[in-house]
User: Which sequence fits this backbone?
């Protein structure tokens, strides 16, 4: 990464959220390395190459309904006054048990959903529109349009068609899609390795006793959860005290082990200067002030061969900055094509207080009214050390930097968490 690509900021200038996202994404590449894995293991993984159909799916014309298959030539399309049609039942085609005989004029065959449509017929009438006269004869009482209720071979995929692209994160549907082609294994990007630790003399790990002024380290748990949802290999390095040697050692170990290193705490103004000093010595790190709340300080750059994210210490700021900056970058490292958080509009059902200045990521509760309208309200106290509202929230309400308070009834941007924190 050249310094020209990522200019440092002077002490007083703030960068916008989108500018920082752009810089981070532009300086992040997909990791090298792939693995061949079986279909079930591939759920949630990112495809390393395009996938092509080797045969048509469905492989043959088949019936979309239970009924009788017959030739469209039996339908008198010229006069349109044909009210019924009586045909001889020549045989049957059930799913997995096709009809192999010949069909001649005046004949139909009994057919079931998914059963192969035999040569010589091309139209299916649903059984509700027929009356069976006896075992050998059926009368069609409502004549269908020619070619009705037949699913054509290749309706879904045709031989040679590209149906999944490199960079696609494989969904449950994609596993089914691959299965229709009989594909047992796929090549995916290797899992990325992410090391993380917390910094701060006041931090204790669970199981330790809190001394005067101490708090438990909670950031490693939110990071664990966020990273777990991203299906990465995690290296949890614990709590590192505000000590020059310990910090330097942890940075070196982390960067040797991982593709990305994430820390929390120690990047705000007034922090012990050796954090910055150490990072500057070991890598190419930018210290940015971002025009966002919660958030603001963020360190980003390279540490050895790994990408480094120094997140702020406040628990809500960790989650907000992870969601806006780290998650998109990790998706890109995984080779994934869609990276930025989804933004939708919802109507606020209450006043959302804000002062113009920074982009707010307020903790919100997104709901759907009885009429189907999306509404959003405040999840509680909006302070960056308060997890209560973050825990209740199911979305961030994103209020632009220059905006003041938002009145009840106005539309706002919302980033939903459900199903999307991945
Ligand atoms: P810092 O960025 O180190 O100045 O930390 C900002 C605030 O976040 C301080 O109140 C810290 O005590 C708190 N903090 C930092 N790291 C953690 C952590 N891992 N878990 C909980 N709180 C933290
Ligand atoms: Mg600290």
Assistant:
């Amino acid at each position: 990464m050249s310094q020209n690509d990522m200019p440092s900021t002077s002490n007083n200038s703030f960068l916008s959220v989108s500018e920082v996202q752009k810089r981070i994404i532009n300086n992040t590449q997909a990791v090298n390395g792939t693995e061949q894995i079986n279909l079930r293991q591939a759920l949630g993984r990112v495809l390393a190459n395009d996938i092509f159909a080797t045969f048509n799916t469905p492989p043959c014309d088949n019936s979309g309904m239970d009924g009788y298959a017959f030739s469209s030539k039996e339908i008198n399309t010229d006069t349109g006054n044909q009210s019924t049609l009586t045909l001889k039942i020549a045989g049957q085609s059930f799913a997995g048990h096709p009809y192999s005989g010949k069909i001649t004029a005046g004949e139909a065959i009994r057919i079931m959903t998914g059963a192969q449509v035999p040569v010589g017929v091309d139209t299916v009438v649903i059984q509700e529109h027929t009356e069976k006269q006896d075992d050998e004869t059926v009368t069609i009482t409502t004549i269908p349009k020619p070619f009705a209720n037949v699913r054509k071979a290749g309706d879904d995929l045709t031989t040679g068609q590209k149906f999944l692209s490199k960079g696609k994160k494989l969904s449950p549907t994609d596993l089914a899609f691959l299965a229709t082609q009989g594909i047992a294994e796929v090549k995916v990007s290797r899992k990325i390795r992410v090391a993380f630790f917390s910094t701060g003399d006041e931090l204790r790990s669970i199981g330790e006793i809190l001394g005067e002024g101490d708090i438990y380290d909670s950031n490693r748990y939110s990071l664990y959860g966020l990273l777990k949802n991203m299906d990465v290999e995690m290296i949890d390095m614990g709590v590192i005290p505000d000590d020059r040697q310990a910090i330097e050692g942890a940075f070196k170990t982390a960067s040797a082990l991982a593709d990305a290193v994430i820390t929390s705490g120690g990047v705000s103004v007034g922090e012990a200067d050796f954090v910055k000093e150490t990072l500057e010595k070991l890598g190419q790190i930018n210290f940015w002030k971002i025009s966002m709340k919660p958030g603001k300080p963020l360190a980003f750059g390279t540490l050895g061969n790994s990408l480094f994210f120094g997140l702020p210490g406040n628990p809500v700021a960790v989650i907000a900055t992870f969601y806006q900056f780290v998650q998109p970058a990790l998706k890109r490292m995984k080779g994934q094509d869609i990276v930025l958080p989804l933004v939708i509009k919802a109507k606020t059902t209450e006043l959302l207080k804000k002062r113009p200045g920074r982009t707010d990521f307020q903790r919100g509760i997104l709901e759907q009214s009885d009429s189907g309208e999306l509404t959003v309200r405040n999840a509680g106290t909006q302070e960056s050390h308060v997890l209560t509202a973050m825990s209740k929230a199911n979305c961030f309400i994103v209020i632009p930097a220059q905006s003041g308070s938002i009145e009840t009834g106005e539309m706002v941007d919302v980033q939903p968490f459900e199903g999307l924190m991945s």
Notes: Helices lie at 17-26, 172-180, 219-229, 244-257, 274-282, 315-333, 387-392.
